[in-house]
Structures are given as C-alpha cells and as structure tokens.
Amino acid sequence: MSQHLNVDPLEELSKQLENDHLGPLWETLGEMVTKEPTHSMKPYLWKWQTIRQHLLKSGELLTVGRKAERRVVYLQNPSLKDKVGFATETLYAGIQLLLPGEVAPSHRHSQGAIRFVIEGDGAFTTVNGEKTYMEEGDLVLTPAWTWHDHGHEGTEPMIWMDGLDVGMVKNLCGSFFELFDEETYPVKGIPDGTISRFAGVGVRPIADRKGKDGYPSPLINYKWDNVKKALEELSQLEPDPFDGYAVDYINPTNGQSADARIGCTMQMLSPGMHTQGHRHVHSVIYHVKKGSGYTVINGEKYEWSTGDFFVIPPWHWHEHGNTGEEEAFLFSINDRPVMEMVGLEMEEVYEKNNGFQEVERIFQP
Amino acid sequence: MSQHLNVDPLEELSKQLENDHLGPLWETLGEMVTKEPTHSMKPYLWKWQTIRQHLLKSGELLTVGRKAERRVVYLQNPSLKDKVGFATETLYAGIQLLLPGEVAPSHRHSQGAIRFVIEGDGAFTTVNGEKTYMEEGDLVLTPAWTWHDHGHEGTEPMIWMDGLDVGMVKNLCGSFFELFDEETYPVKGIPDGTISRFAGVGVRPIADRKGKDGYPSPLINYKWDNVKKALEELSQLEPDPFDGYAVDYINPTNGQSADARIGCTMQMLSPGMHTQGHRHVHSVIYHVKKGSGYTVINGEKYEWSTGDFFVIPPWHWHEHGNTGEEEAFLFSINDRPVMEMVGLEMEEVYEKNNGFQEVERIFQP
Amino acid sequence: MSQHLNVDPLEELSKQLENDHLGPLWETLGEMVTKEPTHSMKPYLWKWQTIRQHLLKSGELLTVGRKAERRVVYLQNPSLKDKVGFATETLYAGIQLLLPGEVAPSHRHSQGAIRFVIEGDGAFTTVNGEKTYMEEGDLVLTPAWTWHDHGHEGTEPMIWMDGLDVGMVKNLCGSFFELFDEETYPVKGIPDGTISRFAGVGVRPIADRKGKDGYPSPLINYKWDNVKKALEELSQLEPDPFDGYAVDYINPTNGQSADARIGCTMQMLSPGMHTQGHRHVHSVIYHVKKGSGYTVINGEKYEWSTGDFFVIPPWHWHEHGNTGEEEAFLFSINDRPVMEMVGLEMEEVYEKNNGFQEVERIFQP
Amino acid sequence: MSQHLNVDPLEELSKQLENDHLGPLWETLGEMVTKEPTHSMKPYLWKWQTIRQHLLKSGELLTVGRKAERRVVYLQNPSLKDKVGFATETLYAGIQLLLPGEVAPSHRHSQGAIRFVIEGDGAFTTVNGEKTYMEEGDLVLTPAWTWHDHGHEGTEPMIWMDGLDVGMVKNLCGSFFELFDEETYPVKGIPDGTISRFAGVGVRPIADRKGKDGYPSPLINYKWDNVKKALEELSQLEPDPFDGYAVDYINPTNGQSADARIGCTMQMLSPGMHTQGHRHVHSVIYHVKKGSGYTVINGEKYEWSTGDFFVIPPWHWHEHGNTGEEEAFLFSINDRPVMEMVGLEMEEVYEKNNGFQEVERIFQP
Ligand SMILES: [Fe+2]
Ligand SMILES: [Fe+2]
Ligand SMILES: [Fe+2]
Ligand SMILES: [Fe+2]
Ligand SMILES: [Fe+2]
Ligand SMILES: [Fe+2]
Ligand SMILES: [Fe+2]
Ligand SMILES: [Fe+2]
Fold first, then answer.
1. Which pick of B192, B213, C123, D38 has the fewest CB atoms within 10 Å?
2. The domain at C37-362 falls in which architecture?
3. Which helix (H) or strand (E) holds C29?
4. ipTM of the complex
C-alpha cells in the first residue's frame, strides 16, 4: 500500500506507454528536436603513411576480381564504429589500389561515387561505356546507378580515393546494387571523349542541347591541370574568408554539383594563410592533395600533411592554416548538395577572438 | 611458433586495419552497398483505443505550457526502440491532446510538421501569425522553421495527429529549435484567411504571383470536406491499382508536396476493394481516418479499424483491403518527396499470384 | 562644285549605308532602344450586341465543317488593321458560335488556345481525346499542339470566346497547323474526367505523380461555380489595389499559368469599387463576364457592360470602376507568362492624384 | 434591285464586320494559323569590306559620346526595311568602332546584348562595374538591364560586332532604356576578375554558391583561345551532321545560354566539310570569324569569306560548306533560347537528295 503512495502517476503513465510502444513527448521533446544538431560523430585524422602501407600490403595478399570486387582500405570513424564504412554520418571514403593488368569488374549501385587520383597513371574508368584515363589529381565521376568498371593499362600501382554517400543512402534506406553480366561494360566512342567534349570554359557541345536534365553528368573527368590553373587564377582575387581560394566541381549541363548528391571541392591555401572559423550543417571528408598545415575543429588542432585524410562533423567550428612554404591543396567531399535540396543547410560565422578559436588540444591519432 | 602457422595474413591485416580505424572493403562491401534496402525497421500497428486512453490520462496529469510544450503520445516503433520517436527511419507521428483554454506556446524547428485532426473542433494553429481553425479531418501545415503555436477556444478536448520528419532531420544532423519570446506569435490578418485565399480549384490569388518559390506554402489548412469531395469525384474514374482512389496534398504555388519534405496522402478504398501489392523505397505512417480492413505487409496481415496507426517500412510489399460496409479512408505521411529529390525512389510491382501476397501471419499487437 | 559644299558628309554616309542595306546607329538608336515601350497598338472597346448580332447572322449563312473549320467573329484592333486577327500585338480573341449538332473538326496548332463560355450549354471540347462539356462561365483549355475538336449535343446555340496567342506566334515565326485525319479525335475515358480528377483544392490524384512537367495541363475545364466561389471567399480579404478580387487560372501540376503562354485571370469588382491606376508591359484582352462599369486607359474612359470586350495595350495606365449595383466580373487573357519567362515584365504604380488618372475623353466605338 | 441579286450575303457580312472592327475567321484562319511559319524575312549576306569601309569612314566623321552614344553600322535586312535595325525578325547586329581614348558612355536597356571582337585590342567593357578587356575573338556579355560602358586604352581602332535582340523586344513591346548619371560606371574589383574566377572547365568559385539564379551571368568574357581549343578538342569526335564541330556559349551558373535570350554559338568546319541540310524555327545571324565557304539557304548559295555577315530566316533549309584550305570558324547568334522557353522550337532534317539541297541560284549582294 505504501508502495502506491510513492508512485508518480506520470512515471506510471510513461511505463505503460513504453509497454505499448508509445512514448511521452513531454519527456523527450528535447531529444528529438534539439536546439542544434546532435550526433555521435567526432572529428578524426588518418595519416597517409598508415593507410598507404596497409593498402600496399593488401595488394600483396588479394587479387581483384568477382570475388573481391575492389581492393580498398576505407576510413572507419572510431566515433561511428558500429556503422560500417561511415567516415561521417553520410559519407564514406576508401583508398583503392589497382595493379597493372587488373580489372575491377562492372557493377552499379544507387550510391553516388567519385574518384580522386592520388598516385600513378595508366588506369581507366568506364561509365556506361564511356572510357576515361585517370591521372594524378583528376576527379572522376561514376554517378549513382551508372555501370562502372576500372582497368589498368599502366606499369605501376595506381592509388585513388573513392568517395561514396554510403551513410546517406543507408540512412535513407535506398541501397540497390547489381553486377553487370560481363566483367566489363562495352566501351563506346573514343577514350577520353568526355574531356574532348568539354575542353573550354563556358562552352558546351551543341549535342548537349538535348537531354537537359543533366543526369548523369556528360563530363566525368575533371583534370588536375585544369583545376590547378583555375585556382591559380582565382588567387588573383580576394580569398574566401573560410576556405581560401576554393572551387566546387560542377556539372556543366546545369551548373549544379558534379555529383548530384556528393559535393566536391578543391581549396588552395597560400603559405601562411589562416582562415576564419565557421560551422555548417554539412559534413566534410578532407584529403590533403599536397602541403602541410592544420585544421582547428571545435578547439582541437588536427595537423596534416600530404596524403592525410580528416573529417569535420556537422555543426563543428573549423578553420584552416597552411604552415608550409608552398601552396597547400585540400580536396574534399561533402553532403552540402543534399542539405540544400532538403532545406537543412545552415551556416554560422565564428565571431569571437577575431574569428580564431582557442586551441585547447592537439590531436594525436 | 605454431601460432604463426595458423594466422591468415588477410585476417591479420584486417585486425591491423581495425586498430588504425580503417576497414577492408573486400570483407564489408556487401554490408555497405546492399542489393536491396536493408534496415532494422519492422512494420507495426497501434490500436486507437490504447493510444486514446493513455492520451486522455495524460490530459489529467499534465498541463500544457512552457514546461511541457506539447501534450503528445507518440508512436515508438519497437524495432527502432533505441531511436527516440522513430516510427519509421525518417518519420515521427504523435497524437496530441489540447484542452479548452490551453495554449501550446510558439516555437519553431527545422523539422517539418503536419497536423491531421482526429477529434473535436475549436482549436486553432498559427503559422508565422496566420491563424486557422482546425476541424475533424483537416490537414494543417506548420512548415519547417516557421513559428507556430496552438490554442483552443472550444469546449471539448481536441485530438490531432502530429507528423514530423524527426528521423530524417536526425539522420541528416540538421535539427535546430527556438522558443519564441512570447507565448504566442502575433496574429496577422483574419482567421482562416488561408482558406479564403484558396477556395477554388485551379485558381490562385494574383497576390501569389510574387514569391513564387512557394516556401512556405500559402495554403496551410486543407479542409476535410474538400478532400472528401475530391475523392468521391475521383471514384468515378479507374482506381489506382496499388492505392485505390488517392490524392496527394499539394502546395498550389508549385504543384509540389504540401510540406516540402513530408508527403501527405489520403486514400479511399471502396467496400470490398483489395489493391495489388507493390513496394517502394519511401516509408509510410498510416492513420485510419475511418473504416475497417487490413494491410498485408511482407506476408503478414495487419488488421485495422478507425483511428489505428500502422507503418510500412522501406521496400516492403504491401496491399490494402477494405472489409467494411462503407468506404474506408486512410491518411498517410511518407518521405517520398525527399526520396525523389535525392534520386533514390524506386518502385516494384508484385507480379506473383495475381498481385496478392500469401498471408503467412496475422499481426497481434 | 557648289553641290559639294552643300553635302553633309554624315548624310552622304547614311545614304551610302542605306544603299548597302546597312544603317547608322547614331541616327536610329532611339528608335530601336526606346525609353519606354513603343508600339502602334491603341485601346479599343467592342460592344457585345454588335458582336452577337453579326455572329448570329453568320450562323444563318455558314455551316461549320472542313470548309469552314470554325464559325468565329474576331476582334480586329483598328490600330493594328494590317495585322489580321490582332487584338493586341500578341493576342487574338474570337467569338465562336456552334449550333446544335455541328462539329468543329479536329486539328492542332502551335498557337495556344483557351475558351471562355458566354452563352449556352451542351457543347463539348475534346483535347487529345479527353472530352469535357462546356457551361456558361467555364474556362476550357486546348493547349498548343494538342488535337482538339468541338461538338454540340444541346438544343440551343452555343457561344464562347476563343483566346489564342496569334500575334505572339506570328511575331516569333512559329506557326504550325495540322488537320486530324478524321473529323473527330477518338474519345478516351469518361466525359469530364478532367473535372473529376481535380475536384478538390490543394489535392491531386496520385496518378499525376509521374509526368511532372505539367504539359499539357491535366486540368482542362475550370468550372465557373468554382471560380465564382473562390472570388466570393477572397472578398473577405483585402482587395488587390489594382485589380480588386482577382485570381489567375493555374495548372495544378506546376502552379504556373493554366495555359503555358496565355495568362487567364478573373476579377471581381465590388459595387462602387474603383481601383488604383498602374501599367505593365503585358497587354490584356478583357471580356465583361457580367456587370457594368468603366476602365480608364491613358486618360480615356471606356465604359463597359455585360459581354463587351476591350483591350489594354502594353505600358498603358489603367484603372477599373464598377458602376453597377452588383459585383462585376471581368475575365481577361494576357501575355504575362511569356513576359516573365523572357524577363521583360515591368510594372509601375500610378502615384499622382491619389492613384486616379484624370479622365480627358470618353471613348465612343 | 438587280443590285441586290448580286450581293453575296457572306461578303456583305464581311464588310459589316470590317466596319465594326471585327473579322470573319472563316476567311482568314489560314492567314493567322499557318501550316508552317510565314514571315517576310529573306536571307541576305553583307560583305565585310563594304561594312568595314563605311565604318572607318564613320570614324572620321563622328565622335563617340553622349551625343552619339555608339558609333555603329548595323545590318538592315532589305526584306525588313520598314523595321529599323532588323537583321532578322528578332535579332540585330551592328558593327561598332571605338577609337583609342574614346568612351562609349554608360547606359542600360532591356535588350540583351553581346559583343564579338573582330579587330584590335586595348578596349574594355564594364558591366555593372566589372571591367574586362576585349581581344580578337572574345565574346563579351552585357546582359539585359545591366549598366555598361566601353573605353579604349589601346593605340589602334577597335572593331566588334554587337548582337542585340532588338526585334524580339520590339515585338514584345518591352523596350526600356536609361542613361547612367555619370559617363562611366565605377569600376569594382580588378580588371578581368571575371576571367580569373572562371579559369577552369567544370569548376566554379565557391562564392558562386549563393545567388544561384544565374542572372546576370558571373562570366562575362569568353576568351577566343579557350573556345578555339574547345573546338579543336571536339574535332576528335564525330561532327554534328548539321553544324560540324560546334559549341554553345553557356552561363556556368545554370548551364543555360550565356545570354538568357540570345543564343551564341561557334562552329568549326573542317576543310572540305559539307554539312547536311535542316531547318528550324529559330533564326540566325552569322559572322564569318575566319575562312571561306558557302551556305545554301532554301536553294540559294551564299558565298562567304572572313568577316562577312549573313542571316538565316526561320524555317529555311540551310547547309554549310567549307571551300578553304583551313578550318572555317562561324560565329552566330540566334533566338533559340526564347523559342525553347515558350515551346515554339521545331526542327526538320532535309532528307531528300542525301541531305543536300539543289543549288538553284547564287546570291549576289
Ligand atoms: Fe562501385
Ligand atoms: Fe567549412
Ligand atoms: Fe512544433
Ligand atoms: Fe504504397
Ligand atoms: Fe483550334
Ligand atoms: Fe493591370
Ligand atoms: Fe548598350
Ligand atoms: Fe541550323
């Protein structure tokens, strides 16, 4: 009887609700609808030498083919360790090794994918039969649900970054995958026709007048020389306060993101440049194309040099510094296109302390 | 020494990778990129009497105000019990009770929200100061990031369904929330002006020529009489094979979903109607506006009657049957608008067995 | 020799240029690029009794069929008399008579066309085989390049207004025309299915999810009762300062103009209402659905009563007054959709004299 | 009395209609709604030496300034001689001469304008204060309603083509024009910043993320080297059957026409190339950037060489031949963007005689 006296009737109700697979919003509203984004993702940084060494080892142990479709070592964010392949809540990055003569067979999936070439040349990608050779610094697209395979006609190992929106598609329960009947998709047209069709700024083949929806992008290889030159020219103007000199890769048919869902960006930081802090809803995976410096993320300093990867979670303050003698180049992928489509992107500028966070910790992998 | 003999070098590599927060794609590709959508969400059905009884109890125990912003009992899908408020991976449904004289104070959030009125009248919603009264069967919008409050000028308890894209926003890490400085947002214009502005099919006030992007929707209350009439008229034509007579609620400014991210649909099933099975990526929360029947989901039969709620997970076969003597009306919300924006929607028709699944089980709550 | 002294060398150059089919911009820039729109179109007003009497006469003299495809008396703006069928520089209006049992045979053309029913019932229109009956006050669409024919199952003469963008298509050199092989296009589905599919405000059949580009509009008959009710409801709100209570007819698929190029608008002026003057690039053909009043156009007063037609040229000040005892209804078509697509629409409010022009003349036909 | 016997009552009615500013559609339908486009425009070709000689003469006689805003000799199509400045029914082309030190003062107009540089360098254009230098072969935009002026810091006369949609805007009654208060608009940022911002294919400065509607285009100078290289690369692929190797100039923000209403195209014809005939609704003004050859238009041969201008009317068969030893380059402007916006574009392939018209006449200017 005294027992009854102690029972809070609201608690009692909550228990009954739980029993019936219902819940009391008055207790949990703050968990569902938070003042600012909440998630369990934390920043992390992976050193290139660690990745590369494991990758080369896998090259000795594994053969690429229908049994192991791709030889890839991927980033597993330790704060998301229960979610296989999550570098951020939406994005995946893998580092792929293809040896001379190997074929990564043809398949397609609803995940979008981009490739950023880290080392080597002589390998190629085909997208629905369009073949393009990959060279260091190139961005190659294999848009969602397009058939794609890779081959290698060169003589040295070839290493590139794969970026896919694994988490995004997982969260939205939209994953589909198919193997192509043959090992490779029949090649159409001449190799690198995609590059020949888009060799000038601000012009487009008239053949492109039809098929205006722009999917998949008719341009599938964004050459490094071209992007580098664009950034050098851009550096004659004022830098962006948060990103230095920076360009987005775009689909020339519609001016939107090159990959419809995965934003791709290349930044150039001048020697000594230190950008102002800001934060935004979209998350980012960074790969250091070249150079050395650091990024401060929510008060912790992540020091990077050529080849490293690091990730910035949603709504985390961040700012970049170049400590090298030369320009630093940071390639990155993000989920900004989706955030903007669905109307969830927000941005805030770090105003305190002249825009620079106080560094409280230095990250150690 | 014998130990070394037993170690598979690939396993050894995998361990080292794990240690360095990396992963071997050759082991896990199938987990990340699945042939079909995988997720842990299962169907479920909640009986109206259970919900209603708990809700009325909460009405006795709890006062609405700044301490308990909303008096709501929400669906907690048992298959997603670690995710507070998830009815599906993307959508939330709550059942809200407002008593005469109460005020659910003004706030805004990046989650979109819709209200579907279940019982009563006399309560109202304001959206950025636009005031509209709620009657049984009405759909009322409070679009993402608009200020909204509810009040009650009537004499009887008022019950409605809240639909929010809690899971969607959570997965995309985009939740923002703000309280309004005052309890209620100042009312602008006359009550139900939104209805007066949109009282004819296919016509729109010329004031609406400007501000074409259509956000937020200028129409915020979709009256039940109007929707019912639309369905009755529609029933003179061929029914949709999968959904019977069905309409989507749309934003008259752009012809797109009434809420930009949450699809809203009303279906009418004639007596005896049994629709053909299909499945799609988008998931659905159903509320039985009126009638009795069943829905077969992946071979399990969910029997429903007036007021019940049930959920259909992504890529699950489903078909509907009306076993009552009269038309059945099913209201539902879904994440189809987002799936289409991001290009992940797919649909498949159930072809076997003349389109009807074999019923293997009957669901018991 | 003296001759040479008199010749202005610039004049001499101009003559030589003319000879070579060239021109001197320094003389003519002001003609090509004018400070404000210039054109030769003037306002005009046609009395209904004049039109009707001629039209009925034509009914006695002429039979509709492949020899005379349509029995129509059209407005010929006297200021544009060299341009056959021009009521404005872009728009045409005809008044069509169809007698019981007659068939206006099937054809299609690149001109868009709308019908507004003035008298009678029992006639129908088919659009690509979709059949709809026409009643007084209805707006019926036969979008550009759709097959259309009219028939008459009633017992009394039927009169309606035809609106086409004859001048627009002529100016853009885009006229195409084809006769259908048969007299009538085979009817598909049930009559007035288009109305049954769109019988509710803000809802749309789910069948309409596909085929999103919205051309041609799935809704082809906008019933008068519906529009009238919309205007009555709208009159509970503030009127538009320039147009009173006014709605645009829209395509429910995309929220844009019902006819993609021809804007259609219905205005209601309360007894005694006198709107403020403004002017805009788009031109307008007005038909007085019901009532009596006047429109002041660039200082001249055009008095109208039920059935009359009048036209407002581009960039002409205009304001409307209702002098009757009841609501006046003005139906109008305009070229605003095209002006907005191409970015040429401009608007200016008449600020002087409290927004009312001084009336300098009263128009006499 | 005998008089009465002779009168055809339909003729009588027609006369009465004419008297009342009405018309009988049964007589004139075929004039308004034609089977194919009808217009009075004919092809024409202007020799470069004629134009250039007159233009240089005007340079001796006329000073540029507020009295003569621009020193331009324009094409006056003899078939449209009553329409000042019409080269086609929609488009204008002028050839402008600016001498060292001169300033063509700042103004803006609702006509869109493009510049294609024919001779010289050292002159510049500013667009809303953005300054860019003009070199041979460059395409420079001054979009509709943007402030623009030209100056000349070089030492030699500068000649360029102006392309405006004079006829389009005239036909649509949408001409507006304003002088800027000062002679020149204040320059913002560094010269040629527009080029530095868009120096790479398929990439765009992140500053461009905002302001997505793309008007006016952020890229206002399309350098010749860049376009030439694009065409050379394109020539590794199959030529377009009707246009050889051809690119459209596009706005990188949205992938649409560089000027929103005036299409701009550059074609390269290999030595000996002879394209297949076709016709389309859009009309074209051609300028021979370089080379010699001919264009057959509706059976008449128009022979051209470097610098010449010629025009192709709507819906006229045409095919091109290069008779020179080197690549020929044809620059052209057209009204295709508008035709596509409004839905009037059509195209037909010339199928007879293997796609080549029989030449019946050779044009003599
Ligand atoms: Fe793949
Ligand atoms: Fe950032
Ligand atoms: Fe809320
Ligand atoms: Fe379904
Ligand atoms: Fe017609
Ligand atoms: Fe007006
Ligand atoms: Fe100009
Ligand atoms: Fe052509």
1. B213
2. Sandwich (2.60)
3. helix C25-32
4. 0.96
